[in-house]
Each structure stands twice: as structure tokens, then as C-alpha cells.
Design a protein that fits this description.
467 residues; 5-stranded mixed beta sheet; globular
Length: 467
């Protein structure tokens, strides 16, 4: 978002403000990623991030603060130390997400943190249909597809969490969407992966629990998804789709057809793994290497470690997407730290020294060592001035970052310049039914200048939390 802010200011200086726009300042800490992207997909922790950025419409600094706080609540206290036993309680995660929802909810002045994940009611403009009553927004028993108003195809930024559910003899990838999606055979090409359709009747905290239920770390979520499907069990989507980029591409094709590529598909990885041994145990040094029992357990550990690597890394999907997009010089981009994160445990959260990004105060905090290592590895990656040929990198990371920002900003400016062609779509994308700039009755009137209201919500930061 720093590069986005830089590009916004540069283009405003070079080309002037967008005609009719009242926006003058672009402060990176206040910019909303949901104003630049239409869909955000995530698996596991990435699913939580996609929900915060898209469904709760938070800023990046807000997400970083929450991530640091939730890390301690999740991994600060182990539940079990026995091998292959579930290591952590899931209740702290559920409480943490409910607290996040109640703090950043855009629906209610006083929110209990149990909002539904699919967009319903007041969050979208009613079109020829009345909105559900505000009380039904939090009542899972009264929510149904019938209560979801008809809305424009291109609407508010959507979040999609990848999970896995058991069907027959195998685990299948399952998408928990904030929008109601059906596969139209007249649009979707035959190669599209037929994930589940619809928007499941789950609360935001249930969706994040489902996508984060990594085997051996958290118990799976069992929940009633409604629509006649009854109760289903969900695990971390990394079992089937640890890199959601192909799922995003497949979903886009099912909506637009394969003759239309995305304007931009940005894939953000969790760090390249060390696959040098690829499931083979390193030779044990010294005379102990000849002990058969030690050799056996060493090899078993190597295989188990390799399973975890395959579970968390997403390079295979990246190679597939790079082939589909014919490189990374057009609409597909990938950012993934190449050194420094390869030996991180999935639940790493070590106490140590950490510097606060705003105050520059350095102190010993819970998770400080983990956070510092992540930040240092990422900073070194972004500072690298050359492309790595060994991993077939298209350009240095900083160059890719600037290209992504340029495309996002130009697309946003074009969308604002042409907003009068479909004003309702623009108003919905900007979340003006959430900020108080527009009310439910404005969805019924003919498109015209946005209504101006006296409201307690911020105008310079339209999607700030209410409390």
C-alpha cells in the first residue's frame, strides 16, 4: 500500500485528479485494499487476512496489529505436547475473531461479533427487493438465500476462504464465499474446477475457524451450512489448495468465461521452502549413522517434515499459474520471500526482541523473535536489486511491486472516471451503504449524485470502525 500511495500521488500530479473526485490525499496507512481488489482468496492464516481486508474492509496497519495480537492468543499456550495430538485449543481463535468482528463491523453500532460471512442486507443496495430487517443479519436461523437481495454482478469486494471437507474417501477443496456463486454452463468453460456453489450460512468466526483448522494444530470445525446440506466438517484448505491462486483464476473464468483474463491476479506466498532433501533424511554424522533404528526414525521424520513442506508451500500452483498466464509480465504476478523463512514451523511464535514500526521502540515481547525474523526476511527480499534466475524470477521484487501498484491505481482511477456509467456499482464497490453516505432507500432511486448525510463515520476514511 506504500507503493500504491506513491503511485496515486504521482499520477494525480502528472494527470491531475479524477474529474469530479473529492479525494485529494492518499495516506498509505488509511488506504483500503478493498478499494483496489474485487476478490481476495486465502487459505489458513491467509484466509483470516482475506476476511479482514475484504469482508471487514480493514486497513493494512489494522490487520498487522490484529495479527500480532491473535498470534499470541493462538500459539502462546499449548494444549498438548504429545506427538500427533491436537496442539492448541480453538476457543481462543473463535473469541479473537469475534472480537475483531465486533470492533470493525460496518453493520451495527453495537456488534456481538457474530455477523454472517456472506454479504446480506444493508451491506448491499437493495434492487427491486426489500432488505432483511437489521435484526436478522445476526440471526443465522433466519438467514437464507431468499433474504439476499439481487445485486449488480460486479459489487463490493468479496472474501473467499479455502477449506477442505471430506466426501466419500477423499478430502475435497471447498470455498467459503461472501457472495452467492453458481456455475453457469453457458459461461464457465469445461476446464473450470467445479467447486461447491453458493454462499454457505456461516458466521465470520466460523469461516476463519474452518480455514485455519490445520491437522494436528486445531480441531476441525463442524457446522450447519444450511441450504439442506446439514452439518459438515471443515479442515484447513492447505490440505488440498495451499496456494489459492488457481482457485481464484478458475472462479474468475466461471464468472467471465475463459476469453477474459483477470486485469490482475496477485499471488502472495508464505516463503519458499527448503526442499533440498525432499523427504530423504540427511546422513547422521559419526558412528551413530550405522544404527538401523536411528536410520529408520530419521527417515520417518524426514518424510513427515516433507509432508508439512508440501502442505504449506505453494510453488507447484505458482508454476501452473505462470504457465497459464504465459509468464509474469502480463496479468499474473507473484511475490514470495525466497530466503529466511524456509525453516519456520507452522506455529512459530517465539518470545524475543521486536521493534514497533511506528514508534521505533524496541523491546522484548511475546512472538517478538518470530515477527522480527519475518520482517527482516521480507525487507531483505524487497531490497534485492536483481532477479533470481535459479527460481525463474521475472523481475526484482521491488520492480514487481511497483508494477502491481501502477496497475491497481490506474484501474481504480479508470473505475472512478467511468462511475456514472453504472453509479450503483461504484457506490457498492466503495461501500457507501456501509459508511453512512447512502442509506437503503438510495438503492431504489435512479442513479444520481451520491447523497450527503450527517453521520458520525469518517469521510476521509470511509470504512473506519465505529468503535
Amino acid at each position: 500500500m506504500h507503493e500504491v500511495a506513491e503511485c496515486e500521488r504521482r499520477l494525480q500530479k502528472e494527470d491531475g485528479p479524477v474529474a469530479g473526485s473529492q479525494r485529494q490525499d492518499f495516506i498509505e496507512d488509511e488506504l483500503l485494499p478493498c478499494h483496489y481488489f474485487d476478490y481476495m482468496y486465502g487459505t489458513s492464516t491467509g484466509g483470516l487476512i482475506s476476511v479482514m481486508l475484504a469482508r471487514l474492509r480493514m486497513t493494512v496497519p489494522q490487520c498487522l496489529d490484529v495479527y500480532r495480537r491473535v498470534g499470541q492468543e493462538l500459539f502462546g499456550h499449548r494444549r498438548n505436547i504429545l506427538p500427533l495430538a491436537t496442539k492448541y485449543h480453538h476457543k481462543p481463535l473463535e473469541r479473537a475473531v469475534q472480537d475483531i468482528v465486533s470492533q470493525y463491523c460496518k453493520h451495527h453500532d453495537e456488534c456481538d461479533g457474530k455477523d454472517m460471512h456472506p454479504w446480506v442486507g444493508e451491506c448491499e443496495p437493495p434492487v427491486n427487493l426489500p432488505s432483511p430487517s437489521p435484526t436478522s443479519l445476526q440471526d443465522s436461523a433466519t438467514w437464507s438465500e431468499a433474504s439476499q437481495p439481487t445485486v449488480p454482478t460486479e459489487r463490493i469486494c468479496q472474501s473467499i476462504c479455502l477449506t477442505a471437507t471430506h466426501s466419500g474417501q477423499i478430502d475435497e477443496a471447498y470455498l467459503l464465499r461472501s457472495y452467492n456463486h453458481t456455475y453457469d454452463p453457458n459461461i464457465a468453460p469445461p476446464w473450470v474446477t467445479p467447486y461447491n456453489s453458493g454462499a454457505d450460512k456461516l458466521k465470520i468466526w466460523e469461516v476463519t475457524r474452518a480455514t485455519s483448522a490445520a491437522p494436528f494444530y486445531f480441531d476441525m470445525l463442524i457446522a450447519d451450512v444450511g441450504r439442506g446440506r446439514g452439518f459438515m466438517g471443515f479442515k484447513d484448505g492447505g490440505i488440498r489448495e495451499n496456494n489459492p491462486s488457481y482457485a481464484a483464476y478458475s472462479e474468475h473464468a466461471s464468472l467471465k468465461g475463459d476469453e477474459h483474463n483477470p486485469a490482475l491476479l496477485l499471488s502472495i506466498g508464505t516463503g519458499r521452502p527448503d526442499t533440498s532433501n525432499d523427504g530423504f533424511a540427511a546422513v547422521w554424522p559419526g558412528p551413530l549413522s550405522k544404527l538401523p533404528l536411528l536410520q529408520k526414525w530419521s527417515e520417518k521424520f524426514a518424510v513427515f517434515k516433507n509432508v508439512l513442506i508440501k502442505y504449506t508451500e505453494g510453488e507447484d500452483r505458482h508454476k501452473m499459474m505462470r504457465t497459464i498466464a504465459r509468464g509474469e509480465h502480463r496479468w499474473y504476478k507473484r511475490l514470495n520471500v525466497d530466503r529466511g523463512l524456509q525453516n519456520f514451523p507452522l506455529d512459530s511464535w517465539e518470545r524475543g526482541s521486536w521493534t514497533h514500526p511506528k514508534t521505533n521502540e524496541r523491546k522484548i515481547v511475546s512472538g517478538g523473535k518470530t515477527l522480527s525474523l519475518m520482517e527482516e526476511a521480507t525487507a531483505a527480499y524487497l531490497a534485492r536489486e536483481h532477479a533470481e534466475e535459479a527460481i525463474k524470477e521475472y523481475a526484482p521484487p521491488q520492480t514487481v511491486l511497483r508494477q502491481v501498484a501502477e496497475r491497481l491505481v490506474r484501474h481504480r482511477r479508470l473505475r472512478e472516471e467511468t462511475k456514472m456509467q453504472n453509479l450503483r456499482r461504484w457506490q457498492t464497490h466503495m461501500g457507501q451503504w456501509l459508511t453512512g453516505e447512502l442509506g437503503p432507500e438510495d438503492g431504489m432511486r435512479e442513479p444520481g449524485p451520491p447523497a450527503h448525510r450527517n453521520t458520525s463515520k469518517s469521510k476521509s476514511r470511509p470504512d473506519t470502525p465505529r468503535r
